[in-house]
């Protein structure tokens, strides 16, 4: 396989396809953090675009549109990280890149103009308005802090003006490694409120005098798995521990009156992908209650009013939103759909008015659009589809929900993309999601790397959600604990069997791919089954022993494997693909990012080594400037093109 793939037919086809979907040159193709006020004319969001070419990467800018219909406006020229609208809708707080690479900038915007700005040292990850609108809190990651896997899974680097030969030095010491809370009265300079050894992952105002924080006493990415809920006094900085969870926490949101904190508690595998139980802590009584959310695994929450919590999440194939009334202890669903989903990484929704909500929606064959829910009905506010997107997507098949029975009788759900005009068995690509505590949804095809291009070439794409996936409740997610590569692998294989039995898949032409946990499974499944003609693990784990000792998240494998990384046997050996792959010769293309510390590049090297020793063709592709799951551009395009080439070489047409 050539190092420079840019002149290959596969790369040209990939670039042409994604050029039509993403329209480089300034078109806003994606969005997040959509927000607005019921009495305001405009909605605000962070718009994503390729300002120049696909090769130069994505830019994020502050944008707005008219709520009742109109064009999109880009309001700034700085890389925009976070936005937050004041409760009265009058002032928008914006966190963006500053003039100094080591310091971000917080800006205040009125309806028509930028009115104030201050710098904070580090990278802003969250901002929130106090209930009285007088102050902001800002969660700031130090200049060398770890990033979560969904954001690249690497450690940020402190800028240096020294010569290139100077070594990289890793240490557990230094303020630049920690996440801290700052407050700003919107007049003077921001002030740091918390300090090491408190590491704040998320925070929210709880009344005007205290801050609810998800925090740990260590700064490493893996310490997030053990984080608890605390209360920080704004005047003194004193910290009071409130709740130590059995599992993990996310989306802490304090009530305006300071009387309670809502948060999500769940068994999780990734920071930023918390999906589970809506939980409320009463600060007066100390009582912790779990809300009944109508079978929806909750992924985002916001206070709609002093007594109502708005939430979004997943239930089976559906994405859903609703409100939970604290006074009546009852939830009401406001919208659900399997035809459309919302949110960037997980379902996400923003309340507006007494019962409405805003979110960025999409589906496999529908480009993202800004949406408002009114009386349970979705209304398109503005489409982000590029001019040639619909035409480019028309040959990429259609998605549909599927279900089947696992060997133990448990119902398993997933999605299938069937190629246009298919009437009989086709080659099948099994694409396994990351996590494992995550799920495939009805997401836009541009998020699926090579899958839509393969569908246009006659492949069926299988997107299974085996046990461990979200949207099926706590017990289903927890079923993967201590058994990664066990029953979940059988769930996937039985799904393949079901598609073969339906006459949709050719059992001689089946390939498997995936990133992170999906990368592990892509390396693992071919060592356990003769179903596969080719495998393409991306950011995999090959050896759980070395993974534990080199990853930024060693806590992950201890939780998921329920075994000791110091023992000479057990799951650390029996579930390591590199220890078994040599027994089954399956052509393997392994890809990884050199900056990845969630699944370090050595894991891909071990998978590649084992594949070669099996006697199978194998290629290892390492991108020097990419992180976890290879989501940056142009690496994303290059990896998609290589998948097309590899499958064309190793999954032969039927005779």
Record the SSE blueprint.
Elements: H1 9-22, E1 28-36, E2 42-49, E3 59-66, E4 72-74, E5 80-85, E6 92-97, E7 103-109, E8 114-121, E9 123-129, E10 136-141, E11 179-184, E12 191-192, E13 199-206, E14 210-216, E15 228-233, E16 239-243, E17 248-254, E18 260-266, E19 277-282, E20 288-290, E21 297-305, E22 308-315, E23 318-325, E24 330-337, E25 341-342, E26 350-352, E27 356-363, E28 366-374, E29 377-383, H2 389-393, E30 398-405, E31 411-418, E32 426-432, H3 451-456, E33 460-465, H4 474-478, H5 487-501, E34 505-515, H6 517-528, E35 534-538, H7 544-550, H8 554-561, H9 571-574, E36 588-593, H10 601-613, E37 618-623, H11 635-650
Parallel strand pairs: 32-33, 32-34, 34-35, 35-36, 36-37
Antiparallel strand pairs: 1-2, 2-3, 3-4, 5-6, 6-7, 7-8, 9-10, 10-11, 11-12, 13-14, 14-15, 15-16, 17-18, 18-19, 19-20, 21-22, 22-23, 23-24, 25-27, 26-27, 27-28, 28-29, 30-31, 31-33
């Amino acid at each position: 396989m050539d190092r420079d793939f840019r002149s290959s037919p596969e790369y040209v086809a990939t670039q042409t396809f994604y050029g039509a979907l993403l329209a480089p040159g300034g078109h806003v193709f994606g969005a997040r953090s959509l927000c607005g006020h019921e009495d305001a004319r405009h909605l605000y969001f962070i718009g994503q675009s390729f300002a120049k070419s696909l090769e130069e990467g994505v830019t994020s800018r502050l944008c707005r549109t008219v709520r009742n219909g109109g064009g999109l406006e880009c309001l700034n020229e700085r890389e925009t990280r976070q936005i937050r609208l004041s409760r009265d809708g009058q002032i928008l707080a914006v966190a963006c890149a500053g003039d100094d690479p080591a310091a971000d900038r917080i800006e205040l915007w009125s309806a028509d103009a930028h009115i104030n700005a201050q710098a904070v040292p580090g990278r802003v990850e969250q901002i929130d308005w106090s209930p009285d609108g007088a102050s902001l809190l800002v969660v700031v990651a130090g200049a060398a802090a770890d990033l979560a896997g969904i954001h690249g899974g690497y450690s940020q680097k402190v800028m240096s003006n020294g010569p290139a030969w100077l070594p990289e030095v890793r240490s557990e010491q230094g303020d630049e490694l920690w996440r801290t809370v700052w407050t700003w009265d919107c007049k003077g300079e921001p002030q740091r409120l918390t300090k090491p050894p408190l590491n704040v992952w998320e925070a929210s105002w709880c009344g005007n005098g205290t801050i609810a924080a998800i925090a740990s006493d260590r700064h490493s990415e893996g310490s997030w798995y053990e984080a608890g809920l605390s209360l920080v006094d704004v005047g003194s900085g004193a910290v009071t521990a409130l709740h130590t969870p059995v599992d993990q926490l996310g989306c802490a949101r304090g009530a305006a009156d300071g009387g309670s904190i809502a948060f999500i508690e769940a068994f999780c595998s990734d920071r930023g992908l918390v999906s589970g139980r809506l939980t409320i802590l009463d600060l007066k009584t100390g009582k912790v209650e779990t809300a009944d959310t109508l079978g929806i695994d909750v992924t985002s929450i916001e206070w709609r009013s002093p007594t109502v919590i708005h939430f979004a999440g997943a239930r089976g194939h559906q994405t859903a939103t609703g409100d939970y009334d604290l006074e009546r202890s009852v939830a009401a669903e406001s919208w659900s759909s399997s035809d459309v989903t919302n949110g960037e990484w997980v379902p996400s929704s923003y309340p507006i008015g007494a019962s409405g909500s805003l979110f960025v929606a999409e589906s496999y064959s529908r480009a993202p659009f800004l949406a408002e829910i009114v009386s349970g009905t979705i209304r398109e506010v503005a489409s982000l589809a590029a001019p040639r997107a619909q035409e480019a997507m028309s040959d990429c098949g259609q998605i549909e929900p599927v279900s089947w029975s696992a060997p133990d009788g448990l119902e398993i759900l997933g999605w299938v993309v069937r190629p246009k005009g298919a009437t009989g068995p086709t080659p099948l690509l099994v694409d396994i999601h990351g996590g494992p505590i995550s799920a495939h949804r009805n997401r836009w095809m541009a998020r699926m790397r090579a899958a839509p291009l393969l569908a246009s070439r006659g492949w069926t794409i299988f997107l299974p959600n085996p046990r461990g996936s979200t949207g099926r409740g706590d017990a289903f997610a927890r079923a993967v604990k201590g058994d990664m590569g066990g029953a979940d692998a059988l769930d996937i294989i039985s799904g393949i069997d079901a598609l073969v039995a339906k006459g949709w898949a050719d059992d001689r032409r089946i390939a498997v791919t995936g990133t992170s946990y999906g990368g592990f499974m892509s390396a693992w499944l071919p060592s356990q089954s003769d179903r596969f003609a080719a495998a393409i693990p991306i950011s995999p784990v090959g050896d759980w022993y070395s993974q534990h000792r080199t990853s930024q998240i060693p806590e992950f494998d201890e939780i998921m494997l329920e075994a000791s990384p110091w023992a000479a046997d057990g799951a650390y050996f029996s579930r390591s693909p590199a220890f078994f792959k040599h027994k089954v010769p399956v052509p393997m293309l392994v890809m990884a990012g050199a900056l990845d510390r969630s699944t370090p590049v050595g894991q891909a090297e071990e998978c590649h080594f084992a594949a070669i020793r099996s006697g199978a063709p194998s290629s290892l592709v390492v991108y020097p400037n990419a992180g976890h799951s290879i989501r940056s551009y142009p690496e994303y395009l290059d990896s998609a093109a290589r998948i097309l080439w590899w499958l064309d070489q190793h999954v032969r047409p039927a005779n």
